[in-house]
């Protein structure tokens, strides 16, 4: 339902609270300098949040599938190393791009304590806490998903699901038992793509929440939502990667794309499609560990994006912190570093890390002694291979957190402790 916007190769990445391309009022901005012609990267791969637009094609169980999907495999030449990328046409809503190859360290400690035992048991436990959301406003209409977070009617979802209803539009929630209720928006944060809505109803079943820090690559997960308008759909897969920097489009109060933001995502191969946005990614304990937000798609010449087994969810700890502030009417606080970064030097030389082009005065970075020209290679225990990796790493932290930053200056590797600041959105 949004007009997708192709991300520019010459973009600016903010690396603090609200990382946007081009930069908004964020904490850290990453400027992408021009590349030498022989090293110029191809167009970055668009990915899409899942938000069904009935105006384009009404969701139906017998939905017509395009006869052929064309996969364009490109050498993206992303800073920090070349990578093969799957490219999608502009298929539905916001453009989403995996703009870094980095992911968090692979954890292999097995889990299982408290497992419900089967996907059917997980589905039975979680389905009462997942809803379908119908949205209309500003000449647009669509469907998404949401997760009940309180018995008195508060529901967590994506901002891009409800943005079209922010200025006089309508929201209708359908529960797992088939009952319906109108809803209102309590708050939205485009920079984290999180929103909270509320229905005038009590006695709801809030979801149980897990700790994404306990996730391990390869463990089984379940996705629950309303893909293509098919309410209460359950799919299963594994955690494919952790701490994946993913750039997605942001939406204003008219359902229009007005920039990009970077999320620190959980990657999964569980099937998620347009309409799954705002739904639950769940562990085998029946605990929500992520909010499904975006997927990778193959190029198919137009129409809706579809699952190819590469999906992304916002970790629930980050989503809940934002949701709690929105639900209470507070401004949303984001961690703040205070640097502008790029993936190459001003001369166009690529670097293995995030090149600092500018330091904001009196910022945490300035106080810690970081300088323009430094190349950040680690942030805490996370390797940094490009600007978006640093954006996602900062975004994953709470304000006032102390983090050890590793950087290169004049050919030498140095470390410094930085106390992150606070930047309020809205």
Which key terms come to mind for this protein?
9% helix; 426 residues; mainly beta; disordered N terminus; 5 helices
Q: Main beta sheet, described? A: 8 strands, mixed
List unreliable stretches of 5+ residues: 1-27, 29-96, 106-111
Mean pLDDT: 77
Q: Strand content of the residues, in percent?
A: 35-45%
Instruction: Fill in the CATH topology of the domain at 333-425.
Output: Pdz3 Domain
Percent helix among the residues? Answer: under 10%
**What's the CATH first level of the domain at 333-425?**
Mainly Beta
Mind telling me the C-alpha Rg?
20 Å
Name of the CATH homologous superfamily of the domain at 333-425? PDZ domain
How many strand elements? 27
The computed structural class is: mainly beta
Distance between the termini: 24 Å
The helix tally amounts to 5
> What CATH architecture of the domain at 333-425 would you give?
Roll
**Morphology:** globular
Describe the structure.
This protein has helices at 119-126, 159-162, 316-327, 364-368, 387-395, and strands at 12-14, 20-21, 29-31, 47-48, 72-75, 84-87, 96-97, 130-137, 140-148, 154-157, 170-174, 180-189, 194-199, 220-225, 233-251, 257-268, 280-283, 288-296, 311-315, 332-336, 339-344, 350-359, 375-379, 382-383, 402-409, 412-419, 421-425. Helices cover 9% and strands 39% of the residues. The protein is mostly beta strands and 426 residues long. The strands form five sheets. Strands 1, 3, 21, 22, 23, 24, 25 and 26 form an eight-stranded mixed sheet that branches. Strands 14-15-16-19-18-17 form a six-stranded antiparallel β-barrel. The chain has a domain at 333-425: PDZ domain (Pdz3 Domain, Roll). The chain is built from five helices and 27 strands.
């Amino acid at each position: 339902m949004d007009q997708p916007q192709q991300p520019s190769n010459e973009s600016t990445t903010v690396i603090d609270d609200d990382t946007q391309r081009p930069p908004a009022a964020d904490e850290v901005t990453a400027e992408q300098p021009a590349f030498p012609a022989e090293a110029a990267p191809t167009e970055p791969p668009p990915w899409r949040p899942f938000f069904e637009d009935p105006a384009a094609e009404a969701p139906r169980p017998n939905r017509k599938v395009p006869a052929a999907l064309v996969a364009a495999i490109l050498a993206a030449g992303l800073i920090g190393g070349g990578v093969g990328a799957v490219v999608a046409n502009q298929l539905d809503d916001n453009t989403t791009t995996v703009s870094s190859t980095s992911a968090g360290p692979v954890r292999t400690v097995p889990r299982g304590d408290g497992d419900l035992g089967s996907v059917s048991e997980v589905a039975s436990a979680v389905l009462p806490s997942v809803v379908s959301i119908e949205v209309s406003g500003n000449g647009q209409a669509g469907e998404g998903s949401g997760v009940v977070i309180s018995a008195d009617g508060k529901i967590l979802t994506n901002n891009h699901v409800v943005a079209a209803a922010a200025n006089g539009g309508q929201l209708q929630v359908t529960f797992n038992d088939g009952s319906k209720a109108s809803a209102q928006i309590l708050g939205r944060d485009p920079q984290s793509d999180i929103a909270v809505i509320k229905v005038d109803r009590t006695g709801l079943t809030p979801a149980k929440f897990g700790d994404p820090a306990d996730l391990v690559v390869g463990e089984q997960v379940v996705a629950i939502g309303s893909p293509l308008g098919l309410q209460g759909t359950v799919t299963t897969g594994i955690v494919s990667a952790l701490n994946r920097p993913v750039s997605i489009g942001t939406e204003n109060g008219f359902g229009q794309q007005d920039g990009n933001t970077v999320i620190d995502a959980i990657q999964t191969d569980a099937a998620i499609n347009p309409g799954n946005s705002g739904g639950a990614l769940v562990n085998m304990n029946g605990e929500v560990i992520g909010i499904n937000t975006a997927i990778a798609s193959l190029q198919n010449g137009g129409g809706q994006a579809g699952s190819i087994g590469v999906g992304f969810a916002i970790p629930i700890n980050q989503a809940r912190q934002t949701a709690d502030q929105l639900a209470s009417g507070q401004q949303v606080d984001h961690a703040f570093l205070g640097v502008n970064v790029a993936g190459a030097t001003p001369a166009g030389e690529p670097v293995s890390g995030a090149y600092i082009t500018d330091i904001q005065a009196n910022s945490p970075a300035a106080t810690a002694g970081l300088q323009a020209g430094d190349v950040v290679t680690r942030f805490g225990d996370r390797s940094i291979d490009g600007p978006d990796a640093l954006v996602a790493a900062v975004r994953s932290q709470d304000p006032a957190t102390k983090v050890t930053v590793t950087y290169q200056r004049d050919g030498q590797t140095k470390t410094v402790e930085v106390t992150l600041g606070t930047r309020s959105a809205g």
